[in-house]
Amino acid sequence: MLVGFRDRIAEPWGARTPYGPGDNWPTRVDAHLADSVSAGQVERWVQSASILHSNGDAMDIAVSGGRIVGVRGRAVDRVNHGRLDPKDLFGWQANAAADRLTAPLVRDGGRLVETDWDTAMDLVVRRSKELLAEQGPSALGFYTTGQLFLEEYYTLGVIAHGAIGTNHVDGNTRLCTATAAEALKESFACDGQPGSYRDIDHADVIALYGHNVAETQTVLWMRMLDRLAGPNPPTLICVDPRVTPVARAATVHLAPLPGTNGALMNGLLHEIIRNDWVDHDYIAAHTVGFDELRQQVEDYPPERVEEICRVPAQQIREAARILGTAQRLLSTVLQGFYQSHQATAAAVQVNNINIIRGMLGKPGAGVLQMNGQPTAENTRECGADGDLPGFRNWANDSHVAELARIWNLEQIQIPHYAPPTHLMQMMRYVEQGTIRFLWVSGTNPAVSLPELSRIRSILSQQRLFLVVQDIFPTETTELADVVLPAATWAEKTGTFTNADRTVHLSDKAVEPPGVARPDLDIFLDYARRMDFRDKDGQPLPPWHDAESAFEAWKQCSAGRPCDYTGLSYAKLRGGSGIQWPCTAEHPEGTERLYADGQFWATPEYCESYGRDLVTGAPLEPTEYRAMNPGGQAVIKAAEYLPAHEAPSDEFPLYLITGRTLYQFHTRTKTGRTPELQAAAPQVWVEMSVKDAAAHGVSEGDVVEVSSPRGAIRAEVRISGIREGVLFVPFHYGYWDAADPDQHDRAANELTITDWDPASKQPIFKLAAVRVRRMGGVS
Amino acid sequence: MKLDLALRELHRSEKSLAADLLKVADRHKVDHEIYHVARDLARWSQQHGYELAEVGKRYGLTLADDVESDSGLLAGVREKVSELAGRRPEPGLLLLADLRHLHRVAAGVSLDWELLAQGAQAAKDSELLALTRRCHPQSLRQMRWANAMLKVLSPQVLAS
After folding, report:
1. What is the CATH number of domain A183-370+600-634?
2. pTM passes above 0.90
3. What pLDDT, in 10s, does the model give residues A726-735?
4. In the CATH scheme, what is the code of domain A653-775?
5. Phi first, then psi: what are they for A603, rounded to 5°?
6. Does the beta-carbon distance from A433 to B142 stay under 8 Å?
7. What is the ipTM metric for this complex?
8. Where in chain A is the domain with CATH 2.40.40.20?
9. What is the pLDDT of residues A192-222, one digit of tens each?
10. DSSP class of residue B77?
11. Fewer CB atoms inside 10 Å of the end CB: C or N, chain A?
12. In chain B, positions 84-143, which contact chain A (CB-CB < 8 Å)?
């Protein structure tokens, strides 16, 4: 079945294929070919998976005449059963956009000019060596993405943590998935998604916390819609201040005030514990910390929570009853929690509901702490995001020693005196001038970070040497000293892993444009030119291409939770994605973690000793050893704290930011895809009926939204969002704006510089703003 | 019975810790995590101050419960200075010195809570004992926070 683009823009979730609990989700193959191409003209179908969202939908790329001409979902794949997101149906066209970066650029007298690889790389290498000699590794920082491949992250991790020995490595996963990882580390002392997408097939209750799955992971929502359309459908609970498609399908929709998720979760737990909807045997056998949680949530009866969150007490009771009496409870969490105040504390309380109900590791009973990006999981595993590779514990000397042995380096070469530096702290070091070389790969901080006027001024400092590696000119490449043109999906081979631990292979289908090169080749070229060596004088890293990098990563992952040793390119090619851990004992991978109530939480093995959820202070090894000697699940309580910015007389409204289904990140690809760009061409601001009336604005009016940090202009959409709250999508920067220097449409002009002390994830969903009408319908 | 002395001393030290936390927040406004978390932690000390004033009445004490919620007249000046110096590396050393100071003050407060808890047990004042059990862990968390931030931030300050 070929689905035309008009259908899938207007009906992004396509036709229903209903099924019942425990049944197999029916297959539906979505495909789209260029208008000028018939199926018979496709010369090759090349195996891949999506990199335009975090779901990990497998697809084949149609190739004809050396060009990509379309895509088709892979029917055999466990993740999507043939379905594709509209972004994937159309987004491949951006690979061939006319303004791809096709040659390196260097800054010359204030503007970027084309050059060759030798010239560009010599500049990068010379500056690296100068700074290493002058200041040492602390002068260099690396900021990567959630959209490269596993092999590239691992290579970057080895170069940065090992060869250079800097602690300053992070990914833009800090903005999307840091809290998912931290919440899992707090509850299970180790990263690793407990649940499986197949839990949707079995669940009788699905609770979605700040997770607008209908727009962020459309294929996963198709799966839920198909359950809802089938016999014995699950009951949905939705926590979201907006009336999303999920909210409309939910039996209970809780719309808390921004910044109050922590109080709401404590209220739900209060009711669940008060009614004794808990599995005491499970708690006794597999957990520590329940008494502390019980004491903490005693202070949050529904009436008090109603005052804080402005959610009716009766709704809280009703939601708690559904959660508390579910037979198979699946909980999912995303940015509504991760990018808000008390992010980790709130996400951990979701884990707590499943833990105290004994709802882990069984079909339909699990937790999915989601990702926002396609390869975010690999950034976390490979040590490119503020973790050490293989979920190794920076505070455990024996883990660092093992890593030093794998890399054949002296242990002191690998920084482990503190957690790897998180992005927002790196930006502060750049601001202070102690990081003087920043290499940004595959991300666009000049649009995606909070408080953009600050970010622009930091990144445009003369004393900073800024290297930007990307596939298109962006607002960030504009500020760079050197721009390196990269190959992307379909132009290179590698693997990546989705939010439910499914590893996919993505094969090269076509040549990259101009002299653009795979990110892996660029990193390896840098390593060779820098002449990095291990302690025996051998080249570091020793690998030379994607498959040899994958084989090296397998060795690094051996015996760790994210064990890839049972996987190979040959095994991944032709079949479906496979979930790690995948070993000789479990050659087909592992569907669910913690099925037997056994955790990776012993003090010797665990990735993290955890942090104080309010102060963010890491626990000392001895504290953890005393708290959890047996390596059980950790039930961690947290008090509610008022948010750091609240509406005032001057700025009386809350702002939250987020996504639209049709765009991804800063639209580098989706904005260059005609169907997607036409579906969501311009920024807008959502307001409630009442707020619109109070400000005298109507649908389509242009308003100025301003915060203490900046102002934007946007058209008004009147929606079901809760009163007192505005929503602005974050995708819209300036590369295709009428006047790029106006800085009047990126949501992050308004956002605050503040982050969760535990996960260090910036708070995008809480700023105080005001609205002023500019003009009528355009 | 000298519990009133212990109460008075702890009330004084909590007030002074709250004021120090707010001062450090102002002085390092451009170190955003320090700014926000120090203000959150100051609230704990303020709350402890209120509760000590309340329980102090039973011991014939009139302890001021008007704990300041900002760091006084100079707050704005300190914030401005912080912003003006935000591009320079030198405030890094000042921040380390401030965190070191906070750690010492919080350690003092923590010891005072320990003394009060010992006294409350000897005097069989279970209400006072309950108060110490509620508040003392927060003093320890304030202290560990200062220690942790020192550990995280010092390598860059010292090696660059």
Report:
1. 3.40.228.10
2. yes
3. 999 999 999 9
4. 2.40.40.20
5. -55, -30
6. no
7. 0.95
8. 653-775
9. 999 999 999 999 999 999 999 999 999 999 9
10. H
11. C
12. 86-89, 91-92, 141-142
